[in-house]
Write a structure and sequence with these properties.
The structure holds 2 protein chains of 2 kinds.
Chain A lengths: L2 E10 L2 E10 L6 H11 L19 E4 L2 E4 L14 E4 L6 E3 L2 E2 L2 H8 L16 H10 L7 H5 L1 H4 L9 H12 L9 H5 L12 H5 L6 H18 L1 H10 L17
Helix pairs in contact in A: 3-6, 6-9
Chain B lengths: L3 E11 L3 H12 L4 E4 L16 E2 L11 H11 L6 H20 L14 E2 L9 E2 L5 H15 L4 E2 L2 E9 L2 E9 L5 E11 L20 H8 L4 E2 L4 E8 L13 H4 L3 E3 L23 H8 L14 H13 L9 E4 L6 H7 L1 H11 L8 E10 L2 E2 L13 E3 L16 H22 L9 H16 L5 H15 L6 H19 L11 H25 L22 E8 L2 E8 L5 H7 L11
Parallel strand pairs in B: 1-2, 1-9, 2-6, 9-16
Antiparallel strand pairs in B: 3-5, 4-5, 7-8, 8-9, 10-15, 10-17, 11-14, 12-13, 13-14, 17-18
The chains are: A alpha+beta, B alpha+beta.
Chain lengths: 258, 604
């Protein structure tokens, strides 16, 4: 088959540039195969993070022709190969080398989220319809492509006051778990910075797991924060009767189908 | 002299997949200071690729199930070569381990009465696999990851171990390097748990990720630990075979569990003609009966597509060899004509996307093309069935790298619960052992420095390209020690490996120390070639066909070998193989293992 020209970023935290590599295309080839071919035959030190090559581990996120993608799930025949294919690392995170970026910030953010907190002596019965939404969020493979495209993180580098879509999804999966008892709304409002999100849905568009990040996770969480902190009527009743966690029936928010 | 950073732990866990994380949790709960080393980022380990489910006799769907039936199924599937005590521990504890995951936040698919749902799988008499669609491994690893982080997990991500360190005959630590920086790390640990997974990357066609280079088998063997059952490698019957770039990627057995059927090029369901004698009478004999089973008739027997993986893989191979294969050399797996598009998308969502994206194929409309792919290592480090202790003091092993539970062939779904049951046991016993050791673990600096120098050799060597050597190793193993084996080819492979080894040790890696895949591959190869040799030696010694080990020159099971395990030992650097009798099973368990299945499924 034909030769496809690739332009791959080579460099490290001090800088770098695109380098040209010809790749012998094969039927059904994905971008990760091309990178591996370059590695095996032309540049054995070309750094690239990957694991499963089946879209299940979320390791090989990169920007292919400027679009955030999992390299293992991006076929060459869906790209315009008459032009060179460019592959760059995710821009929101510092480059380690070549296509590998330092995503450790995400692991630090994750530690700040109150983990699953069931009540003692829980009866572990849950109906499927009550966990469908939580299961949608738990499909997340932590590729961090949503973090990569989020304007708050990418353009404004707001990595201290905002946890990003990935972790809003994680909070949603916990808050909407029928048997969880913790309250993460104060964190969402303050350290989580949910107010920064202006629901442009860029995260949803790039999610390889097709999670409705904005509609199903972020907007319902925003509504809860508003109800909790900014609704004068509810606020009055809460002062009278105290606060408690919302009932399960309210968990879904505005539903989008899957 | 190369500088390195030193870390002190009570327990060092090597690997952050299911068994490593479960071991770390158990050891942390015991109060041990635990460090985990992971070649990848946390949460990316190969466990994430497990699809179909985690087997445990929860009895949520069929109350007739029990640990005894699971015990019987596991032994039967394993060609009776399993370590009976491990199977007993495993089947008895698996339900608790799964329920525990739920209490740590896992959200399994539900039954109508709100409990954990269970699905059918090959070799399991009853629906037994707790699952989340077809992404059960992801659910499990995320749950273990979150729970471990909650307990204060200390993890060295993207760190590869080069060798274990010994002192006075005991394992006391390890030396490795951080992949991102190329800097060396020395771990001093009172106990080390190997949880390094499998060796699929020894083969050209595999469902395994890059990490599965068999590190743990070699690390253990190089310090004198015994390996057992190394001839038993599972070739999963249903890997993708087209397009070529995706060859080997797994197609979950859940497709067949949900009703999918296998057909040859003539449109015939060939599995009806491939029921081995030991399973005669337990499977449907007509398509009509199999269809009744699918529709919930409890008096109908299971379709033969749900035979064990070794049987199905070989049946597909036979169809291809006899000219009835699919266009790209496999068989057709059809769920489209069996279930509604909505059902398929709900129960097998990642299979739907995988084929849509990688092969332009809609599995709700067309059959898939599938063929065998190297999937799982039954053999591995020999361990005590209760403590996961190896024959080397301070060294433990759990999960795929450990051997004994699965015998000659593993049942689908038994791996995920293996990780939980024996990960926990390894963590507990390693923590206990560490607590009995006073002071800090001691390592020999001279040993450390020599190993570091050795690991840096590729940078100054003008030797061959490690990727080309890797290709050569994998092609040879695929051809000569793959799904069907024969004496001449095994002998050839042994010679090939012997010639390859010095070339591997001379491989060169241009470039710098930071995140250099060429260097990483050069070092991986040094371990892989040791593991490959162990596999070939054991495969030559077993002159019969059983489970995952199939010999063209000895096509049938042999009663002599039915009572033997092969042990691989290292003496003065060289590997040797010896046969040892299986541990004797007590009479009461033997009765359970050999029980005929009668009432439960109505048939004879």
């Amino acid at each position: 088959m034909a030769t496809v020209q690739f332009k791959v970023f080579r460099g490290d935290k001090s800088g770098g540039a695109l380098q040209d590599y010809p790749v012998e295309a094969q039927e059904g080839m994905v971008v990760l195969d091309a990178i591996h071919q370059i590695q095996a035959t032309q540049a054995p030190d070309l750094a690239c993070r990957w694991n499963c090559k089946a879209g299940k581990c979320g390791s090989c996120g990169a920007e292919v022709n400027g679009k955030p993608k999992l390299m293992c799930m991006t076929r060459l025949d869906e790209l315009d190969t008459s032009q060179p294919v460019t592959v760059r690392p995710m821009r929101t995170f510092p480059v380690i080398r070549d296509l590998a970026t330092d995503v450790s910030w995400n692991y630090e953010v994750n530690k700040r989220i109150t983990p699953f907190s069931p009540a003692p002596n829980t009866d572990w019965r849950m109906q499927q319809e009550d966990v469908d939404r939580v299961q949608e969020f738990r499909k997340c493979i932590e590729c961090f492509l949503c973090q990569n495209v989020c304007h708050v993180l990418r353009e404004h580098d707001e990595k201290t006051g905002f946890i990003g879509p990935r972790f809003l999804v994680r909070v949603a999966s916990l808050e909407m778990h029928p048997l969880d008892t913790a309250n993460r709304l104060p964190m969402l409002k303050d350290a989580g910075g949910i107010g920064y999100c202006n629901i442009t849905k860029c995260c949803t568009e790039v999610c390889p797991e097709h999670i409705h990040i904005t509609d199903n996770a972020i907007i319902p969480l925003k509504e809860r924060v508003v109800d909790e902190y900014y609704d004068p009527v509810l606020s009055f009743f809460r002062r009278l009767f105290g606060t408690k966690k919302r009932p399960v029936s309210d968990a879904g928010g505005q539903a989008a189908d899957d | 002299m190369e500088s390195y950073q030193t870390y002190d732990y009570d327990v060092l866990v090597v690997g952050a997949g299911g068994s490593g994380l479960r071991a770390a949790i158990a050891a942390m709960e015991k109060g041990a200071k635990v460090g985990v080393v992971s070649k990848s980022l946390l949460g990316k380990a190969h466990t994430v690729m497990a699809e179909g489910g985690v087997a445990a006799a929860l009895r949520n769907v069929r109350s007739e199930d029990s640990w005894q039936v699971h015990f019987r199924d596991t032994l039967k599937g394993g060609g009776m070569l399993n370590n009976w005590k491990m199977v007993q521990n495993y089947t008895q504890e698996a339900p608790d381990r799964v329920l525990e995951l739920e209490q740590w936040g896992a959200v399994f698919d539900r039954t109508p009465d709100g409990r954990i749902n269970q699905r059918n799988f090959g070799g399991h008499t009853y629906p037994r696999l707790a699952h989340v669609g077809d992404r059960t491994g992801l659910e499990m690893i995320r749950t273990l990851q979150d729970h471990a982080v909650k307990l204060g997990l200390n993890v060295h991500m993207e760190t590869t171990l080069y060798r274990l360190l010994t002192n006075g005959g005991a394992v006391t630590g390890a030396v490795g390097f951080h992949r991102n920086t190329g800097q060396f790390l020395v771990f001093r640990a009172k106990a080390v748990i190997l949880a390094t997974g499998g060796l699929g990357k020894l083969y050209q066609i595999t469902s395994n990720s890059w990490e599965c280079t068999g590190d743990g088998f070699a690390l253990a063997s190089l310090v004198g630990a015994e390996l057992i059952d190394m001839e038993f490698i599972q070739f999963h019957p249903t890997g993708m075979i087209w397009p070529t770039g995706v060859m080997g990627i797994l197609v979950t057995e859940g497709v067949r569990g949900e009703g999918g059927v296998l057909k040859n090029a003539e449109g015939k369901r060939f599995m009806f003609d491939n029921v081995p004698d030991r399973y005669k009478g337990e499977f449907a004999e007509t398509e009509e009966e199999a269809d009744r089973w699918l529709n919930g008739d409890r008096n109908a027997r299971r379709p033969p597509e749900l035979l064990t993986r070794d049987v199905v893989a070989r049946a597909i191979r036979k169809e291809v060899n006899e000219g009835r294969g699919s266009p790209h050399g496999g068989a057709f797996l059809d769920i489209a004509s069996r279930r509604s598009p909505e059902y398929i998308k709900k129960k097998l969502p990642s299979m739907y996307h995988q084929f849509m994206q990688l092969a332009n194929l809609d599995i709700t409309k067309e059959p898939m093309e599938v063929g065998p792919t190297c999937h799982y290592m039954m053999g591995g480090v020999r361990v005590d069935p209760d403590t996961q202790r190896t024959n080397i003091p301070g060294l433990y092993a759990a999960g795929e790298v450990a051997a004994g539970l699965h015998g000659a062939n593993r049942l689908g779904g038994n791996s995920l619960s293996d990780l939980l049951v024996f990960g926990r046991r390894a963590g507990l016993s390693a923590a206990e052992y560490a607590a009995s050791q006073s002071g800090t673990a001691k390592v020999d600096e001279a040993q450390v420095n020599a190993l570091i120098d050795e690991a840096l050799e590729p940078f100054t060597s003008a030797g061959e390209n490690p990727f080309a050597l890797m290709q050569e190793l994998r092609t040879g193993m695929q051809k000569n020690a793959g799904i069907m084996r024969v004496e001449e080819e095994l002998a050839t492979e042994l010679e090939l490996l012997k010639a390859l080894k010095p070339r591997i040790w001379k491989a060169g890696a241009p470039g710098g120390r930071e995140y250099n895949p060429g260097w990483h591959t050069a070092l991986d190869l040094r371990l892989m070639v040791e593991v490959a040799e162990a596999v070939v030696l054991a495969a030559r010694a077993r002159k019969e066909s059983r489970g995952g080990h199939a010999r063209l020159d000895f096509p049938d099971p042999d009663p002599t070998f039915a009572k033997l395990n092969h042990i691989i030992r290292r003496k003065d650097g060289a590997l040797s193989v010896a046969a040892e009798p299986l541990p004797e099973m007590p009479a009461d368990l033997k009765a359970i293992a050999e029980a005929k299945l009668v009432t439960a499924q109505g048939g004879s």
